[in-house]
Amino acid sequence: GENVEQHPSTLSVQEGDSAVIKCTYSDSASNYFPWYKQELGKRPQLIIDIRSNVGEKKDQRIAVTLNKTAKHFSLHITETQPEDSAVYFCAAKSKIQGAQKLVFGQGTRLTINP
Amino acid sequence: DAGVTQSPTHLIKTRGQHVTLRCSPISGHKSVSWYQQVLGQGPQFIFQYYEKEERGRGNFPDRFSARQFPNYSSELNVNALLLGDSALYLCASSLIYSGTGRYEQYFGPGTRLTVT
């Protein structure tokens, strides 16, 4: 079935440095790739997404890149701040019967050290 | 502008019991999806509903069922609860359910279900 692999599972960086999280997907028909941030005890929050017709998208300190040929996409956070500490999930949209579901990676726990 | 709401926040049930969880989507959104998130893992797709019909179902047993109402709110029902059903149940709403349009999914706060 469809699968999304996410690495690393934990990431610790110094405040002000950059963080990169990488995901690979298996369903070649996937065309939508969102990233969610989940703080402890809270809902997953959509922070950025990318569609298969573009290779890169940026929103302030956050950027996402997509390589459809290699079936991988990455989240880049620059100038990290303590409030960036959270679990980040990547996902890929996949078709199931008549619906479209999101298949999630296992998550990356990002810790920003002051 | 209200986001996705879910009730109850927390629930404790005993094995074998039945549970009903509720979700109200963002105003104007017609699609509701349900996900199960076990501690330490990413959310797993259970179903998607659009215009009161189930459009797709993940790899979950028939003990899991749901429905969508004319106002697009939804209920998730789980029968004969098992210890392994303990999880955070998330509802996500989107404007549409398929195609290449505005497909962004926004999650509710979830219902934390504990089965003892």
List keywords for this structure.
heterodimer, A: 114 residues, mainly beta, six-stranded mixed sheet, five-stranded antiparallel sheet, 61% strand, globular, B: mainly beta, four-stranded antiparallel sheet
Summarize the structure in words.
The complex is a heterodimer of chains A (114) and B (116). Chain A is mainly β. Chain A is 0% helix and 61% strand. In chain A, the strands form two sheets. In chain A, strands 2, 4, 5, 9, 10 and 11 form a six-stranded mixed β-sheet that branches. In chain A, strands 1-3-8-7-6 form a five-stranded antiparallel β-sheet, with no helix packed on it. Chain B is an all-beta fold. In chain B, strands 2, 4, 5, 6, 9, 10 and 11 form a seven-stranded mixed β-sheet that branches. In chain B, strands 1-3-8-7 form a four-stranded antiparallel β-sheet, with no helix packed on it. The N and C termini of chain B lie far apart (37 Å). In chain B, 41% of the residues are buried. At the A-B interface, β4, β5, β9 and β10 of A face β5, β6 and β10 of B.
